[in-house]
Design a protein that fits this description.
The chain is an alpha/beta fold. Strands 2, 5, 6, 7, 8 and 9 form a 6-stranded mixed beta sheet that branches. Strand 7 and strand 8 form a beta hairpin. Helix 3 runs parallel beside helix 4. It is elongated. The N and C termini lie far apart (about 85 Å). The relative contact order is 0.18.
């Protein structure tokens, strides 16, 4: 192999390192992590996920590599829906945003329209350290056309890393845990809002 070819190969490798890699990081929260109450709240709840919510992704460069969290919105939606169904007697999907004309809205006690306000993460120096991740939700609670509450919660993922060749596994685990934690916190804070407590007391047997 000529010296020119060797120099060209080394230069190519160097450029590859400088350019970094792009990692696709899926979130796969486990519905088994949902905190299930002993008794469901005796309310009829509608839920609405906007296109912005369902399509929420996050991409950022860390340590020269690109990290693309490709399904944070859809994974959150799946977890929210399952959590609502475990916590409330009746749960229905809304055809439009709360506050708009909705044929089934009159039969509902309240409507939930969560937002994702942001996602933050970091990549540690070594794979054995914690991969921190935080997702922030705003839980909009409607009664008819009225916005009754908008609590904000932050789900935290703090999974310790493990060795392996798949660089997306560790940040994926923390993203999944952040969603699990955030949805559980959302259900807990939702249950303590004055509007939910008042309605639940009226409908309690």
């Amino acid at each position: 192999m000529s010296a020119t070819m060797i120099r060209t190969g080394v230069a190519g490798v160097a450029i590859g390192f400088l350019a970094g890699c792009a990692h696709q990081v899926p979130a796969t929260p486990n519905t088994a992590a949902i905190a299930t109450p002993a008794h469901k709240v005796p309310l009829s709840v509608g839920f609405y996920f906007s296109e912005a919510f369902l399509g929420f992704q996050h991409s950022e460069s860390k340590w020269g590599d690109g990290w693309n969290f490709i399904n944070l919105g859809q994974a959150s939606a799946n977890q929210f829906r399952e959590a609502l169904e475990r916590n409330y007697v009746t749960v229905v999907k809304l055809n439009g945003k709360p506050g708009k004309a909705e044929s089934d809205a009159k039969a509902l006690d309240l409507m939930i329209a969560p937002e994702i306000q942001g996602y933050a993460f970091d990549i540690p120096l070594t794979k054995f350290q914690v991969y921190p991740a935080t997702i922030t939700y705003k839980i909009n609670v409607y009664q008819g056309d009225t916005l009754s509450a908008s609590p904000i919660v932050s789900g935290v993922g703090d999974t310790a890393g493990s060795p392996g060749f798949d660089f997306s596994t560790n940040p994926s685990n923390s993203a999944s845990k952040a969603i699990e934690d955030g949805v559980n916190k959302a259900m807990a804070v939702l249950a303590t809002t004055p509007v939910v407590q008042s309605l639940a007391q009226k409908k309690a047997p």
